């Protein structure tokens, strides 16, 4: 019997080539083919010992020990399949991704190996990487401590060089120096890259990395002087509890000197700390790669949630029945569209900015190889900010999708609670999101302080080179359809970002200057005199913005240290940073549309989504745009009017647009998001699988329920 497709009617409405959109989403035809093949391999993996190893439906019902054992089994089976099928590194990585269960293997490939590749000498790489690649050792990344996370400089673990034995002595001097959170460290990792304070001859040289063996390769028992274990249950039922996040303390543990990662700095046999010939800036390469991966993962996680919510919104009907006919599909309500479609557009936006970040990574690597470090400050700020806004928006978006699914979204079988619990740590790891925004804020303040100095901003901050114009320009929108012009949207976002950054700089300048801070004072008029362009601006009818810029340039003094102004205005700085980073995301979506995009109707749908993304951000942050004078309240109302019209254009293509994500039912792990839309029978069927339904009466009937009932009877007779 042929299976029913409850979304068939919706799919026939599509106005574009879904197959071509899948390729655009994947990034290339080759990437699509690899991803599609491996996803289906995992979804249809043959039964082994009468158990489907990659099954996910029972995960939330397992105890912590059962879940962890299940994870070990999955990883072992995945590596077995990778070897049997002779998969490439790219295919193997995809297989582990589609296994969709956090494990120690994520740290082996995602942190341990890159740390050695990025910070080790050629000799160290030759020794340790082959063992790691062949899984002869299992590694983790031990940086975070009980007392310090974001503030890496505050780490307390010490590595003291002993010249008598040519060894480092690792020690945890305080309770708060205990390593805390490293994935894989709790029960499995045999080795770790441990970050500790390098001390030679009584002098503290700051934090460095060391390769340390933690456990016996025979039975995984901790080596002498090492106390290590798991930190306990985390948020959610299944979720990230499949990962053995660890706690570890060192009691004067000795390691050979050559196990310090010495690619950037070295300690000689005599105990001298010597900088190598390799530029320290090379560490930026791995950093950009990791942040690019985080942004790409954000698009994937958000796309899963949006796929579930969109498909279920098309299945679910509530109210609106006419003359006994069917009720209205929930997806047809404007309130549902206004919450759901911006998230759909965001998933595509994050995908394209992630693809651009991969290009940026390659560009950074090429520049580093020629000792060109000119773009690094901008790259650091850009990647930090994009990590922050994409992960925050994705975590919030997953929760919004759960609410969009009503009560059924709260079921584990919807896939959304576990997806949220697994994803939300991304807002903290690899840099707390607020801390990341503050770093962007510092970069913006430094950029503002250098305006007019002759040093032109580059890359994603290049628009600040036109600050004079952006501070006095007026939006040209007169009709709702004017908001469909890319240059109009782009200038509005640029003006908002520039004005918020300049306003922060001016306000910081009002605070007392710190004598011990590093200040950048720009008396541009005294040094260079006003430009002709500036003078002509001042001669215009509305010169307030230009005058403000000149006043700023003649007096601004921005502290890049922890000044009182920076601390007091930190909330404003994070908002300016968000404006800057949202501009990047919008601009990269617009740039994507300037490329040749094949496929019937594909480019048109992406143009609609780009406009939805930009105008929904404007709607959400309308206060910024109006308060800074970028647009008028009337123009803001026109933007909202156009946004409503765009939702109507997304509606007939909504199911096809989430189909283009190409997620298998196995990967989604959601009854509500099933490809065929057969939701209600499957929900009913799934309910009876719960262990509580294995018996008619609950355990504890005779011990607890009956005594209560009998007591109530006696009370009733009174």
TrEMBL record:
Gene3D superfamilies: Acyl-CoA dehydrogenase/oxidase, N-terminal domain, Butyryl-CoA Dehydrogenase, subunit A, domain 2, Butyryl-CoA Dehydrogenase, subunit A, domain 3. Residues 140-241 form the Acyl-CoA oxidase/dehydrogenase middle domain. SUPFAM superfamilies: Acyl-CoA dehydrogenase C-terminal domain-like, Acyl-CoA dehydrogenase NM domain-like. It comes from the Eukaryota. Pfam families: ACOX, ACOX_C_alpha1, Acyl-CoA_dh_M, Acyl-CoA_ox_N. It is found in: Peroxisome. The keyword Oxidoreductase applies. Residues 284-445 form the Acyl-CoA oxidase C-alpha1 domain. Its main location: other. Its cofactor is FAD. Residues 17-137 form the Acyl-coenzyme A oxidase N-terminal domain. Residues 566-710 form the Acyl-CoA oxidase C-terminal domain. Keywords: FAD, Fatty acid metabolism, Flavoprotein, Lipid metabolism, Oxidoreductase, Peroxisome. Belongs to the acyl-CoA oxidase family. This is Acyl-coenzyme A oxidase. It comes from Hibiscus sabdariffa. The lineage of its organism: Eukaryota, Viridiplantae, Streptophyta, Embryophyta, Tracheophyta.
